[in-house]
């Protein structure tokens, strides 16, 4: 196990990836698309999308709702403001109005839990997939393609997993060659959604690991629920 910054992040990622691959073994199409609650977000045929900003380059699109800042991200918005980011820039990053950012920054008292839809395994895998594909493009690639148009979402679980692991492994291979100087470079990743251009790359990697781990944990729980759905 490495003890340097990059080594620790890579070891954490590798451990999570190994566990995730085991937990995803045997995933079938019906389970992949299973909607365990009403009004789930998932992947859908383009003409059947239920959300206003569903996206994807092909016949199937990934649900995405109207832009907002969920309560769980209020602290992140406060951090951005404390670090000197303007209200206008924060609003641009979150695709919300300046007034909404001002409301968040003015909030006092306890933060209520997020009210977000349940998402299917297909949605969670698709979300991670375009994140890894876009993350590679905007840190190591041409920094040109829109991440939301890089993944052709599919209702076929096997095809989805094949493409997903290919993107994960390409990302892992590129990250393994990052230098200490690049880890500390603000804007090494220019990923167009979120705060990557304003963060040192080591923070981007840390956040990427967190995103991978928490979504894979959710997928593992959905698989358990599927087994006991009767």
Key descriptive features of the protein:
two-stranded antiparallel ribbon; 2 strands; mainly alpha; globular; 9 helices; 3% strand; single chain; 230 residues
Task: Explain this structure.
The chain is mainly alpha-helical. It has helices at residues 5-23, 29-32, 74-82, 87-94, 98-106, 121-139, 157-175, 180-183, 201-227, and strands spanning 43-45, 60-62. It has a two-stranded antiparallel ribbon with strand order 1-2. Helix 6 (121-139) packs parallel to helix 7. The longest helix has 27 residues, at 201-227. The chain starts with a helix and ends with a helix.
Q: Topology, please?
A:
Layout: H1 5-23, H2 29-32, E1 43-45, E2 60-62, H3 74-82, H4 87-94, H5 98-106, H6 121-139, H7 157-175, H8 180-183, H9 201-227
Antiparallel strand pairs: 1-2
Helix pairs in contact: 1-9, 4-5, 6-7, 6-9
Rg computed from alpha carbons, rounded to a whole number of angstroms: 18 Å
Strand order of the largest sheet: 1-2
Q: What is the helix content?
A: 40-55%
Largest β sheet strand count, sense and barrel closure: 2 strands, antiparallel
Q: What is the end-to-end distance?
A: 43 Å
Q: Secondary-structure element sequence?
A: HHEEHHHHHHH
Number of helices: 9
What do the pLDDT scores average to? Answer: 95
Low-confidence stretches: none
What is the total tally of β strands? Answer: 2
Shape: globular
* Derived structural class: mainly alpha
How much of the polypeptide forms β-strand, as a percent range? under 5%
